[in-house]
Design goal:
There is one protein chain. The chain is α/β, with parallel strands linked by helices and 285 residues long. 42% of the residues lie in helices and 22% in strands. Helix 4 packs across helix 5 (91-114) and helix 7 packs parallel to helix 9 (239-252).
Length: 285
């Protein structure tokens, strides 16, 4: 059945109240490297970011680069090492993390956004002492636990009309080093520091499924009080536990709502923010 002019008008009409709601508000979006490595998906994400920016949403992007870092290590003949899903980060690996995240991944994304003609600035957590951390666990090496977020530089970029794109590394406060930090955690804490309206964690997972493995069982909305029981029952498990913890912390600290959504769905950001149904799992008080 062809898509009619009336269908297009209905889409725009549905989006209007959401555009009005988010105009002038800050939304922090964490982009997963598994999504950004697919050109078609990356282009869809970028177009979503630009559209939101053009309708007056203050968009902030935080990114990691797990896939790219692993690829670089492998190309150098080194095997990526993880403990409980966390990268073991030796000083040599930290140099590679810094080069890949702050250099290639960050600047590639900034370049892609800039080609649309929109103002964009690339930052990393050490710029303006944005992310500050101390060592999480000596066995993990230079992996940091965020202790402070100073959002002044990001706020200034937003006020100047830029889309800030931020790599998730942090300045050490307990020793003279940089730390590798979780992009999910960095996005969550930055959303709180900015007083953001919403936090979106863009992943390669559908969201929280009532029946693991069955995408049709997506839970569209959760109250924070429901989370502990779902973790206990194994509904929330694996990597999703850490992501949900970030969403819970943000929601408890003033962010209106936090959402885990599947970035492999083209234009997932717009579907989540500007439509009635949404496509992920929203956590709220």
């Amino acid at each position: 059945m062809p898509y009619t002019h009336a269908d297009r008008a209905n889409v725009l009409t549905e989006a209007l109240p959401y555009i009005q709601r988010y105009n002038g508000k800050t939304i922090v979006i964490k982009c997963d490297s598994s999504v950004m490595n697919d050109k078609a998906l990356k282009d869809a994400v970028v177009s979503d970011l630009v559209l939101l920016h053009l309708v007056g949403v203050r968009v902030v992007v935080v990114h990691g680069g797990k896939t790219e870092i692993d690829a670089m290590l492998t190309s150098m003949g080194k095997t990526p090492v993880y403990q409980n899903g966390v990268r073991v980060t030796t000083p040599e690996v930290m140099d590679i993390v810094q080069q890949v995240l702050c250099g290639k991944v960050n600047k590639d994304l900034v370049s892609t956004i800039s080609r649309t003609g929109n103002l964009c600035v690339g930052l990393c957590g050490i710029d303006g002492a944005l992310f500050q951390a101390k060592q999480l666990d000596p066995e993990l090496g230079l992996v940091g636990k965020l202790t402070k977020v100073d959002p002044v530089l990001v706020q200034d970029a937003l006020d100047a009309g830029y889309i800030p794109v931020i790599a998730s590394v942090a300045q050490g406060t307990d020793q003279d080093t940089l730390y590798n930090v979780s992009a999910d955690t960095a996005a969550s804490k930055l959303a709180v520091a900015l007083g953001a309206e919403r936090l979106l964690l863009l992943t390669n997972q559908r969201g929280i499924l009532a029946k693991p493995g069955e995408e049709s069982s997506l839970i569209p909305e959760l109250q924070l009080s429901q989370v502990p029981a779902l973790v206990k029952d194994g509904v929330i498990s694996g990597d999703m536990i850490a992501r949900v913890d970030c969403c819970v912390e943000a929601a408890r600290s003033g962010v209106k709502s936090s959402t885990v959504l599947d970035g492999t769905i083209p234009h997932a950001i717009l579907l989540e923010l500007l439509s009635d149904a949404g496509v992920g799992t929203m956590l709220k008080n």
